[in-house]
Amino acid sequence: MAITAGYEQLVAQAMAVVKTYSVPQVLARLADPMVQIVDVRDVRELSEGTVLGALHAPRCMLEFWVDPASPYFKPVFADESKEFILFCGLGWRSALATKTLQDMGMRNVAHIEGGYTEWVRQGGPTETLEQQKARRKSRT
To answer: Which domains does the chain have, with CATH numbers?
Structure first.
């Protein structure tokens, strides 16, 4: 089987049409209640930690969680007043995921350039899964 469009080409095509924020741009909006950071990494990657306040929506389920017609729909994604800013490990999967959500009709979606790797490199706030669970529990 010949691959007619490799991952590099697909990522480049996605990057050309999606909104991309730098880490400092996202840091400036981190406390904005109209922004939801979304971690699209695989659950096995979460042991490294995640962006403070991020919602985990694995890449493999994202389309199903976003589509109201899906039995897996998550209502958080129906809030059109929010901007959903996605990230992955390096920014490749989040670019593809952002493009897919745009293809589904979402316009309130972007991703973080360089992903979690760049976030950590630039000193962005992170939390462990245990810290995230405790923070969410304290809100209820």
So the answer is: 11-139 (3.40.250.10)
